[in-house]
Design brief:
With 173 residues, the protein is mostly helical. The chain has two domains: 82 residues, Orthogonal Bundle (Arc Repressor Mutant, subunit A); 82 residues. Helix content is 72%, strand content 7%. A three-stranded antiparallel sheet has the order 1-3-2. A hairpin with a 6-residue loop joins strand 2 and strand 3.
């Protein structure tokens, strides 16, 4: 893993920037970027440090954060002493489910806020009411979205794999 292409580094940096927009530290975003495209799909602590040209402490803090957030898991391989990190199985499905749960928790907080302001005029409650309305809408739409995803996931995945496996699809990479 001593030679790393410019394209690989650019991908990792773009991944880091994207994750940074979501509130992640840049190095955690780099770890995610590296794990998204690593072959094999897992990398050791030392491999991550070498690939990302980062200190072992920085890699350790990033992998610990990503494991706490349930995005990355530590795995061992048969016959190997060291641990490896990889993106969690079912990460994207669980990500969608987590958003739905977050919206439900948000709705609960809004209802508590409305209870605190129960004797206040409706104008005072407007911000909370708007938040409740968007939470209701998201909750209503999200369950249908999750159902449609589960119904179509395999079909969409197979279609994209077929497209990218064809000679024309390889040009799109």
């Amino acid at each position: 893993m001593t030679h790393v292409s410019t394209e690989l580094h650019q991908f990792i940096e773009r991944s880091a920037e994207l994750m940074e927009e979501h509130g992640f530290p840049r190095m955690a975003g780099r770890v995610i970027g590296a794990l998204l495209i690593s072959i094999p799909p897992q990398l050791s602590h030392d491999e991550l440090a070498e690939l990302l040209q980062a200190s072992k402490g920085s890699i350790s803090m990033s992998t610990q954060l990503l494991m706490r957030l349930n995005l990355v898991e530590r795995v061992t391989l048969p016959g190997q002493r060291r641990s490896y990190y990889r993106l969690r199985e079912n990460l994207w499905h669980d990500f969608l489910t987590d958003i739905a749960q977050h919206v439900q928790r948000e709705r609960t907080v809004v209802l508590q806020g409305l209870a605190v302001l129960k004797n206040e005029p409706v104008e005072t409650k407007r911000r909370l009411i708007e938040m409740l309305v968007i939470s209701d809408f998201m909750q209503e739409e999200w369950s249908g979205l999750l159902d449609r995803w589960e119904t179509r996931r395999h079909e969409l995945l197979e279609a994209r794999i077929a497209e990218l496996s064809s000679p024309a699809g390889k040009d799109k990479k």
